[in-house]
Amino acid sequence: MHNTEVETAQSQARRAIVLVARSAFAAAPYRQMQQLCDLAAALPGVDHTSFGFTEQGTPSLREALAALRQQDFSDILILPLMLPIEPSFNAWLTKSLRRWQAEDAAPWPTVRIAHGLAESPLLAALMADLVTGADATPPIPPLDRLAPEGSLVPAQKRRVLVCQGGPCNAAGADLIWGHLRNQQDRQKLRVTGDGTMSAKSTCLGPCNLAPVLQVFPEGTYYGGVTEAAVDRIVTEHLLGGAVVDDFAYHPTGRKQLLR
Questions:
Q1: 158-249, CATH topology level
Q2: With the C-alpha atoms ordered 20, 222, 254, 257, is the resulting torsion angle positive or negative?
Q3: What architecture does CATH give domain 12-118?
């Protein structure tokens, strides 16, 4: 390639950065993420910044990537902001990215995952600054006693458990959990139909069918769950009362393979 062609390609290359956190519920963390985006936008060679979440919070990482794909970016860098990061993080995120690419045949830009914060040589200086700044904050006053607080017993009849065992985490269970929680919020599932509550669970048992979730009161197991599967489970099972057989696995007394 001639020098002029290299210069033209470089001038046309556009990089986007997606800052990634686990979850956000209130307005304050969204403002913080936008502040971090503004800082990243000032970095050399960065044409656009946005953020997304791997668990609950909008936009999800997949939604953030989908929005960027509608624009003319040649390179997307995913920048994780979490501490600590499990050793399996890059593995399940890479697997999920490949699945998303396979589910959408349209061309994708180059996607990279940056190192985590713990690997930065500047982390010690940042911690020192935070410790110094903490000296100016007021101490937390002690309380004489804690006032008792009551609780409401949930009226919702349905429960969805999302497995957080090792194989399910390695298969991207955090993304499935986040998508379920976002849909629960968007569709007001707590107060719609029989009412639905969701929770993370330790190992649910059928590890080779990961990622796995279980719907009660029927106790139906769903395996190989994707975002599209969650959407169908919400519509057909949680709201419609019908088991989604395409993803359901029933106890047979014999080992079953992921379909």
A1: Glutaredoxin (3.40.30)
A2: negative
A3: 3-Layer(aba) Sandwich (3.40)
